[in-house]
């Protein structure tokens, strides 16, 4: 019911949205993202890959800035010691992995110099805390950055996260993924404690 209310708020067709959500047609895609993230070594959320280099957790903008600036300047390497002490101690993995973007929702420049892939969970408090950092990256690196969103619902911790992920994809069918993304994070405390009826 909460998700239907958000659908109304972001002005999408509620009947289509409800049919999509109850039909379960997005479940396989969410699970594929989850399995992909697990295969890449993501164990918690949020997990970010900056041009394939892994930064696990909701780090401040400065951590991302260091990695992004190096990628733009062409000085990014696979050697951890080429990065600051802060990054070396953060769990950052400098060795880049091939992270497929596929047809995932994204914001920013399509053919950007830097692609950031975020594996996230709508019910995770750390993920909602990372949202302003993501917004700052998009603003400060406009035209140079592509921000990709992938689903990593941690079911044991967040029982409503998977349904929220499906809701975002149902909204995406009507061109409103990011609007639903924002509402789900902004109102996280409102819906995350509700039992599924």
Keywords:
elongated, 46% helix, five-stranded mixed β-sheet, alpha+beta, 5 strands
Give a short synopsis of this structure:
The chain is 46% helix and 13% strand.
Silhouette? elongated
Average pLDDT, rounded to a whole number, is 96
Quote the beta fraction.
5-15%
**What's the main sheet like?**
5 strands, mixed
Number of strands: 5
Structural class: alpha+beta
Helix content estimate: 40-55%
Which regions have little confidence, pLDDT < 50, spanning 5+ residues?
A: none
Question: Terminal Cα separation, in Å?
Answer: 8 Å
**Total helix count?**
9
Write out the strand line-up for the largest beta sheet, numbering strands in chain order. 2-1-4-5-3
Gyration radius, to the nearest Å? 17 Å
- N-to-C SSE string, H for helix and E for strand: HHHEEHHEEHEHHH
